[in-house]
Request: fold
Amino acid sequence: DGSLSAKLRLTTTHAASFTGVITLSTKEERARGEERPGEYSDRKKKRKVSDGGSEATAETDHKTPSSASTVTTNTSKACATTPASKPPCPVGPVDPMKLKALSMGFTKELRILLTKVESAGRQTFNISELEEQKIPLSKICIRNTGAEVVRACKGTRVKGKFKESFLLPTFSVKPNIATTALIPRAKLNPPTPSIYLESKRDAFSPVLLQFCTDPKNAVTVIRGLAGSLRLNLGLFSTKSLVEANAEHAVEVRTQVQQPADENWDSSGSTQTWPCESSRSHTTIDKYAQYQASSFQESLQDEKESENEEEGEETQSSETSEPKTAGKIIKFGTNIDLSDPKRWKPQLQELFKLPAFMRVESSNNMLSHVGHTILGMNTVQLYMKVPGSRTPGHQENNNFCSVNINIGPGDCEWFAVHEHYWDAINKFCEKHGVDYLTGSWWPVLEDLYSSNIPVYRFIQRPGDLVWINAGTVHWVQAVGWCNNIAWNVGPLNSFPAYQYQLALERYEWNDVKKVKSIVPMIHVSWNVARTIKVADQDTHKMIKHCLMQSIKHIQILREQLLAAGKKISYQSRVKDEPAYYCNECDVEVFDLLLVTSENSSKKSYVVHCEDCARAKSPSLGGVVVLEQYRMEELMRTYDNFTLAPSPFSK
Ligand SMILES: [Zn+2]
Reply:
C-alpha cells in the first residue's frame, strides 16, 4: 500500500574528501477515513520506537562534517515531512482531526553520510547516519518523542543548573473559587458534607468515590461507615492493642488542654497561632494505663462536682464536658502499624473498605512508590485523651487522607479548602511559626476576618473522615478515643487535581528546603510504566513531568561528561528506595552523585548537583551513578500514551 523510492545524491564539496547522501524514503499514503484510531496509535508507537533506535546509533558519530549540512537541506526539501522536521506543536488546544491529518502520508527516511577517506594510500568510505534536524529546546512539547527531547537538549548550551518546573505553568485543574467576593459571616461556617449510607453496596458505588475526590469538596464525613461495612473496630481498641503488642513504641506529645476553638499563649493573656508541644516516647502498654487512669480521674471529678452541685445550687451545671482548665495532657501519636505480621488481624480488617479508601490499591499513587512511606502507605494509630491536638497541616505532598475514629469518644475537626492554604501560610509567617514544619493552631477569628470559610464537625466512633487533596485541617479529641489513619492518592477520579497538587507541593518543598516525603519524579515514572491513564488532563501533566525529567537528566548528563566525569550505569534492584540528597533532602533521580564518606566502611552518600558542587566545584571525589539507561526512559516516555476512556464506548 505504499511506494518505495530511493535517491542517491553525490556532491563533491572538497578536493580531498568526498561526501554523499543516500536517502531511502518509504512513503505511506492512505485515504482519509480509512484509518481507525487504534491503528493510528499503533503506528505512532512503532514510529517512536524506531526513532529511539536511530538516536542510539546516531550517537556514535558526533563529528558530522560541516559540509554535510548543505546536503541535508537539499534532501529535506526533496521529501515531504519527516518526523524530525514536523512543525512544533501549537500552544493552544489541538484539533485531534488536524493532528491526525498531519500524521497521514508521512515519510520515513534514513539519511546516510558517506565520507571518502584516505588511509595508508588506500581510499575507503566511512558510512554514518546523518544527525537529524534538531527542534529547539524551547519548542519541545509532550507531542515530541523522547528522542527529539534528548536531541533538543544536546543542541542547547545550558549554563549552570537546569531549573525548569515539572509543572505546566499555564495549565491548572483547580476549581474556580472566587476570592474577591465577600462571604457573609453565616457562610463562613459551611455545613460539612456528611454521607449516610443506606446499604453496604452504596459504599462501593463510584458515586461515593467521585464525591469524595471532587476538588470542590474539601472534606467528607461518611457517617457510620464502620457499621455499614461491619468493620470490627474492636481490633483497634486500647484493650486489643495491648493484647497484640504491649511493648510497641508510641510517640508522646505533651500538651496543654484547652477548648477546641482557643489557643492561648504561654502567659494566658492572648490567643495565638503557635502551639508547641514537647516530644517523648513510651509504649502502648504504658500509654494505655495513662489513658485509662485519665478516664477514671474524670469520672471521679464528675462525681465530686455532682455532689458539690447538690450542696450548692449556684455551681455551673456543665459537668458533661471534661474540664479544660490548662491541664497538662499526653497525646499518643504516630504509632506505626505497618508490620503485617504484628498487626495481621487489624490490617486484614481494613481490606473490607472500598478500594479507593484502602491502604493499597492499583489506582493509588502511593501503591506505586515501590517502598514503604511510614504513615502514608502504611497505617498509623493515634491514642488520645480529651484535648489531644493534631495541629494544623496539609498532608505530605497534598495527598488525600483517610481517618477512622475507633472511639469510644468523639473528635472535633476543623478544615479549610486548599484554595486558602497560602493565606494560612501568611498567618503562620506573621506569628513566626513555620507553616510546613512548625506546630500551629489557627485562631478562628483571624480566618473569618480574612473571609476564609472553615468546616467544623464532630467525628463519632465508626465515622470515616476523607480529607481531600490539599485540605488544611486540625483535630482535637473531645473524649477518650483512638484513631487510625493513612494517605491515598487516587488516580481514578479527578486524578489530575491530586497529581497537580502533589507536584505543586513537591516544588514548594524544594523552595523551602523541606523534604518531599513522596518522591514525585520516581513515582511519576513508576506510574507511567504501570498504569493506563485514560484522563486527558492527568496524562498531559504526567507526560509533561516525564519530559521535564528527561530534560533535567540529559542536560546534567552532558554537563558532567563535558566536565570529564565518567558515568557508571548501575541498574536499580527490587525494592530499592528513591534517593534524596544527604544535605538538602531534595529528591535525586537517576543520576546519583555519590561520595564515599568512609572508604573503609563502604558507606556511600548521595548528593544533589547543587550540594555536590558546593562541596567541590570540580566534583572531585564524586562518582556518578546512572540508574536508568536514557533509551529506557525514552521508551517509557514514548509508550506512555493516553489510554482509551472506559466510558467512551
Ligand atoms: Zn542537595
Confidence is low (pLDDT under 50) at residues 1-107, 313-324.
